[in-house]
Design goal:
five-stranded mixed beta sheet; 29 helices; 31 strands; alpha+beta; single chain
């Protein structure tokens, strides 16, 4: 239930109110008697008073627990309940506290704490789930040593797992057995885990650089063992990379991954026992796409890297969440890039990461849920596992590396872990360590100002313009930075912004040497200019003509660049820029400009939106033998409807959808012969491998099929849709099969129905593949309002379950959050559907409901009648009296943001 103050307002937790705990817990001895309906938990803790805090009662957190016994030093003790907290007065300075509770895992639909999924016990304790297992000081700065004994019926639960090392196991009467686990490292309660069930494991022994052997295990259900090879290889690569890049070795005898199909998030880094959504573990070429393979590699890496950045050093309080998440996202991004064999594949990874940031995080920074990388307050911490904390947090870490250099950053990481191993610390502690290891760096010089990236919300804007002085042969780039107001932060101070810059010759397109005013000689390549004032000027000399500036190369800072490029300048960058990010960005700017012009001109689907120069440029990219297929596919992907909408002050979602669909149709017909060539050149990739080159070829062939089927829609051609259906039937891997299915569905072709039916028949027993089947249909382009009725039918399908987060996301989120052209209906039926689903999900799983609630974050930008209808739908949800605090926080902030 939502806690309120005396005035009836929700209670917010504030960073400025942080206080150290009044008690410490040194050791925790947990004994579980596992039963789905009634699990018994015996919790023995060695505790002591914190001498640095005034004497006060012990307050332990709990949630939906049945309390049976409380003993202090073996004797009965008086206690009282204050809300969900267990309060004990008059305790000695040190003591043993014993608490006996029961809980009902089988009824735990929130999937927080101890729950049952397909007859197997799992836990999820981050952020505040451990209090649903036993009464505890459930906060990250209380780190203790854990010993865990699990007891259960052996036939039903033959595998018993917890954190650390297995020290004892054996038989018990009545067909039961036990396993005892000891974690050699202190940890906060959110890193506790247990798993019990019928599981099988892929095992691999590896030898570290120091000669020590480790056992790696990936546990899954018996029928899924053939889908674990890639996850195991990703884990091995992660272990090797972290030791090679940062000198951080695996510190446990064994490291385990366990997969479950019922999970609120992607994965969880519990010390030594990572629990994963099956989506990020299971893959073989028949059931998983190239994107799945890539995501598994990234997420396995992310959770393993938490073993140091999150587990060995954790966060003092949840406001410091980005300390572990931003750093670890950065580490998994670097890992994925370092595994790429060539520079182009690295660039593709970088562009993909930036695309996520700009389409998801930039809108968050501009909306009612905007918050700094280190938030100042929250009502429900689960709402702050956001793209701001993760992806923008990673960009803050990346800027640190830019400012101190790659080697300097590695030195800083080493110092950070030397200083803080075994501690719960803050974002300030991390930044200080990186700066202290590089005392001569710009980061050290500007550290207090740089840390505004942690304290100020919003996306900074750089307004830049260039002036060429022919007489002095100089080019001056003027840059003014600003940041718009966000909730609770009306004014912003200047940020420290590393700006990567290059110059191109306007006529030849070649890169020019760079000589800053006052320098004696020029240098080649990219220059990093560190901005720290509201307005600055950068003057380059020795230039015989006005250059084309290439600004923000590599996306060197998470900012919005406003520069009035001419079409000719953008075409020069698209054709010639040696920086792959800015080459891609030039194409995006041209596409975005065309879209915005089309929207402003009230274009219809019969009006050409794209000019000949853009079409010719895209043809040149597609046919360019020097460019990799993966990079071509990125350049030829139009800006999304969401990204286009973010550039508008007032959004008519149907007009945005209409114009973008017209752009797709025009690309399909104008480049028809080129798409034919692209498909024929790239569709055969030989024996399946998910490597970047092969994946890129499949992606471009899939894009070509999509456009060829789209062109057939207007021309009446039957050849390419027929070829696409045959490709779907004959495909030797899921990527090619799904690309063909997607081409038929997204083009609205009549052959899509039989392909969808065949797909379901083939994969009806593969839950993750059926998720794709649902998602493809719910996310298909809307034609005449046909998607919402389809979504309602899909929810009645026997394979649909609202209680499974993956399945709920595959249908409801694919429609409400990822299909704006179908969701924003003039009759408001999409909003009514959304409000009903949020309320329905909130009663089952508040975390999932709160995520869905964010689909209308940007309602106040909508044109009428959408705006009023959206607000009414949000108010309908907010008015529900027993709403969870998760969902309540999201919808009330949305309403306050109009």
């Amino acid at each position: 239930m939502l806690q309120r103050d005396a005035q009836g307002q929700p209670i917010a937790i504030r960073r400025e109110d942080y206080a150290a705990p009044a008690y410490w817990i040194d050791t925790v001895d947990l004994t579980f008697d596992l039963d789905p309906a009634k699990t018994r938990v015996l919790n023995r803790m060695q505790m002591r008073r914190n001498p640095e805090v005034p004497v006060q009662p012990l307050r332990l957190d709990g949630d939906e627990l049945n309390l049976a016994r409380v003993l202090v030093n073996g004797q009965g003790a008086s206690f009282r309940m204050e809300g969900e907290q267990l309060v004990i007065d008059g305790l000695p300075d040190s003591f043993e506290l014993e608490i006996f509770t029961t809980c009902c895992p089988i009824k735990n639909t929130k999937l927080m704490g101890l729950f049952v999924s397909e007859d197997t016990f799992f836990t999820q304790c981050e952020a505040e789930g451990f209090r649903r297992i036993t009464y505890f000081l459930d906060r990250p700065d209380v780190m203790a040593s854990y010993t865990v004994t699990l007891r259960a019926a052996k036939a039903a639960y033959p595998v018993l797992l917890s954190n650390g090392n297995l020290v004892e196991q054996g038989e018990l009467p009545e067909g039961r057995h036990f396993a005892k686990w000891v974690d050699p490292f202190k940890k906060p309660s959110y890193l506790f885990a247990l798993v019990a069930g019928k599981l099988v494991a892929r095992e691999q022994r590896i030898k570290a650089r120091n000669g020590k052997e480790h056992l790696l295990q990936v546990y899954v259900r018996a029928g899924d063992l053939d889908k674990t090879e890639h996850a195991m290889n990703s884990l091995i690569n992660s272990v090797l990379w972290d030791e090679a890049r940062f000198g951080l070795p695996l510190d446990l005898d064994r490291f385990m991954i366990v997969a479950t199909s019922d999970f609120n998030m992607g994965a969880m880094e519990n010390k030594g026992l990572n629990i994963f959504n099956t989506k990020y573990v299971l893959a073989n070429q028949a059931t998983a796409t190239d994107a799945d393979y890539s995501n598994i590699e990234s997420v396995v890496g992310h959770e393993y890297f938490h073993n140091w950045s999150g587990d060995r050093v954790t966060c003092r309080d949840w406001f410091q969440l980005s300390l572990k998440e931003g750093l670890t996202v950065f580490r998994d991004q670097e890992f994925s890039q370092d595994l790429c064999a060539d520079a182009s594949a690295r660039a593709v990874k970088r562009i993909e990461d930036v695309r996520v940031l700009r389409t998801a995080q930039f809108p968050e920074d501009a909306g009612p849920m905007a918050h700094p990388v280190r938030p100042d307050s929250y009502i429900e911490i689960s709402n702050f596992y956001t793209v701001t904390i993760y992806e923008k947090g990673a960009e803050v870490v990346r800027m640190m590396q830019t400012l101190v250099g790659r080697k300097g950053f590695e030195k800083g990481i080493t110092l950070y872990f030397e200083r803080h191993d075994g501690q719960a610390v803050t974002c300030d502690d991390f930044a200080q360590a990186i700066a202290d290891a590089n005392p001569e760096s710009e980061l050290a010089r500007l550290l207090p100002q740089f840390k505004r990236w942690y304290s100020q919300a919003g996306t900074p804007r750089l307004a830049a313009h260039g002036v060429y002085d022919a007489q002095n042969r100089s080019y001056t780039l003027s840059v003014v930075q600003s940041c718009p107001p966000t909730p609770g932060q009306p004014t912003k101070e200047p940020f420290v912004i590393p700006l990567n810059v290059g110059l191109l010759d306007a006529s030849s397109g070649r890169e020019l040497p760079l000589q800053l005013e006052g320098e004696s000689e020029a240098t080649h390549g990219t220059r990093t200019v560190v901005l720290s004032r509201a307005g600055e000027q950068i003057t380059f000399t020795g230039l015989d003509a006005e250059p084309v500036p290439s600004i923000l190369r590599g996306f060197s800072a998470p900012v919005i660049l406003d520069f009035e490029y001419t079409d000719a300048q953008l075409l020069t960058l698209l054709a010639n820029d040696p920086d792959p990010f800015n080459r891609w960005e030039a194409g995006q700017r041209l596409g975005l400009r065309a879209a915005l012009n089309g929207i402003a001109a009230l274009a219809t689907d019969n009006t050409p939106v794209l000019n000949d120069a853009y079409i010719d440029a895209m043809r040149s990219v597609l046919r360019n033998p020097q460019l990799d297929a993966a990079f071509k596919e990125l350049v030829l992907t139009l800006p999304s409807e969401t990204y286009i909408a973010e550039q508008l002050d007032v959004v008519d979602p149907q007009r945005v959808h209409l114009v973008r669909e017209a752009m797709r149709a025009q690309l399909a017909t104008a480049l028809f012969a080129d798409w034919q060539w692209a498909y024929e050149e790239h569709h055969d990739t030989g024996a399946y491998s998910p490597d970047p080159t092969s994946s890129g070829r499949r992606a471009l062939a899939g894009m070509a099929l999509n456009f060829l089927c789209l062109a057939a829609r207007s021309s009446g051609d039957v050849v390419w849709p027929g070829k696409t259906l045959q490709r779907f039937k004959d495909a030797g891997n899921m990527t090619d099969r799904f690309n063909a299915l997607n081409a038929l569905v997204s083009s609205g072709h009549t052959l899509a129905a039989q392909a969808l039916a065949r797909f379901h028949a083939i994969f009806k027993d593969e839950a993750l593949v059926i998720d794709k089947w649902f998602s493809l249909q719910a996310g298909a382009p809307d034609r005449g309002g046909d998607i919402l009725p389809l979504v309602k039918q899909l929810m009645k399908h026997p394979d649909f379950s609202l209680k499974n987060p993956n399945r709920a996301r595959s249908v409801i989120f694919s429609y409400c959050s990822a299909n704006p052209g179908a969701f924003h209906r003039p009759d408001a039926a999409g909003y009514v559907f959304w409000s009903e689903r949020v309320i329905e999900l909130d009663a089952i799983n508040p975390q999932v409901a709160a995520r869905l609630a964010r689909a209308l974050d940007r309602w106040s930008k909508l044109a009428e009648p959408y705006r009023s209808a959206a607000r009414e739908a949000i108010a309908r949800v907010a008015a529900k009296p027993d709403l969870s605090k998760d969902t309540h926080e999201v919808v009330t902030r949305a309403l306050a943001g109009n």
